[in-house]
Amino acid sequence: VHPNVSQGCQGGCATCSDYNGCLSCKPRLFFVLERIGMKQIGVCLSSCPSGYYGTRYPDINKCAKCKADCDTCFTRNFCTKCKSGFYLYSGKCLEKCPDGLEANNHTMECTSIVHCEASEWSPWSPCTKKGKTCGFKRGNEVRVREIVQHPSARGNACPATSESRKCIVQRKRCQKEGKGKKNREEKRKKSSKDESKETRQESKGRAARRQNREQRESNNKTQPKKRKAPNKEQDLAPVDTAH
């Protein structure tokens, strides 16, 4: 250590020298040596840099180096992040994950193997052929299911999500598109036409009956009353000739 020790240091140093930098740190700061070429300079930091972990002692707080394969660590024997090419597992950095686990290249950790999971099958669809449900005897029906859990890299692959099978239906003729609607429309028009025809006939009948009644009433008013015919029995009565 250079003998020129100063008490008026900057950057969190409690004591320092021009040659070695910080020699001790203020309370709660960590002392760490940084290499600059062939020279090491002491610095005081609020937290330890990558590749170091902090240790606290009554007289000094220091940053110690992690193991060579650790990028960051909690203690020397417990890593929290590994360097490139290693996978983290239970605080250790491994080149290969244990049996039953797989390497996750995204997080660089050893994780559990996840297998694919699928939902239950749906009910079978109606029997169809070329998109139609009529005009044939044999067709196909299908059912589907969904993937609810996708597998990890070493997990079991997902099964098929659809199945089809042959089916037989009662043969029936297909109605032309719009024919059923057209027939219903024609029936409705015909029914409406018949109702209108009956209504017109009833109206004509009432008008004819009213006209006949008026004609009879008019004839009764204009014809003279008929004279009462004489009683033939009275005309043929014998004449009293006694006088």
UniProtKB/TrEMBL annotation:
Belongs to the R-spondin family. PANTHER family: NEUROHYPOPHYSIAL HORMONES, N-TERMINAL DOMAIN CONTAINING PROTEIN, R-SPONDIN-3. The gene is Rspo3. Gene3D superfamilies: Hormone Receptor, Insulin-like Growth Factor Receptor 1, Chain A, domain 2, Thrombospondin type-1 (TSP1) repeat. It is found in: Secreted. One of its GO terms (biological process) is Wnt signaling pathway. Residues 11-110 form the R-spondin Fu-CRD domain. This is R-spondin-3. Residues 174-243 are annotated as: Disordered. GO terms for cellular component: extracellular region. Pfam families: Furin-like_2, TSP1_spondin. It comes from the Eukaryota. Its main location: secreted. SUPFAM superfamilies: Growth factor receptor domain, TSP-1 type 1 repeat. GO terms for molecular function: heparin binding; signaling receptor binding. Interacts with the extracellular domain of FZD8 and LRP6. It however does not form a ternary complex with FZD8 and LRP6. Interacts with WNT1. Binds heparin. Interacts with LGR4, LGR5 and LGR6. Activator of the canonical Wnt signaling pathway by acting as a ligand for LGR4-6 receptors, which acts as a key regulator of angiogenesis. Upon binding to LGR4-6 (LGR4, LGR5 or LGR6), LGR4-6 associate with phosphorylated LRP6 and frizzled receptors that are activated by extracellular Wnt receptors, triggering the canonical Wnt signaling pathway to increase expression of target genes. Also regulates the canonical Wnt/beta-catenin-dependent pathway and non-canonical Wnt signaling by acting as an inhibitor of ZNRF3, an important regulator of the Wnt signaling pathway. The keyword S-adenosyl-L-methionine does not apply. InterPro entries: Furin_repeat (IPR006212), Growth_fac_rcpt_cys_sf (IPR009030), R-spondin (IPR051514), Rspo_Fu-CRD_dom (IPR043601), TSP1_rpt (IPR000884), TSP1_rpt_sf (IPR036383), TSP1_spondin_dom (IPR044004). Keywords: Disulfide bond, Glycoprotein, Heparin-binding, Repeat, Secreted, Sensory transduction, Signal, Wnt signaling pathway. Residues 175-219 have a biased composition (Basic and acidic residues). Residues 116-170 form the Spondin-like TSP1 domain.
